[in-house]
Amino acid sequence: MFRGIRPCLVDAGGLxxxxxxxxxxxxxxxxxxxxxLGDEPQDAAxxxxxVLANPRRRARxxxxxxxxxxxxxxxxxxxxxxxxxxxxxxxxxxVWTHTKDLLx
Length: 104
Known about the structure:
Mean pLDDT: 76
Radius of gyration: 25 Å
Shape: elongated
Order of helices and strands: HHHH
């Protein structure tokens, strides 16, 4: 019925960006299936991104005791949570977690 038409060559035709991206992914999957599961396309880049078999969370460096003390001191002195989080490069929730008992 639609033989010979490659989805990646079709004009967007007024589709929304998210719909067009989904359409391109389906076209890519169709092309890979047509080539076969073990076959690589001839024009594929050799050093492309690899698929992670076992993804894991990124390693987070815990704050040192001196950093926690500095955060608590800054918060007790009235510095905002946002400015403390920017200064130490941590999330606001991290600052709030270490300083929530200072509010009572």
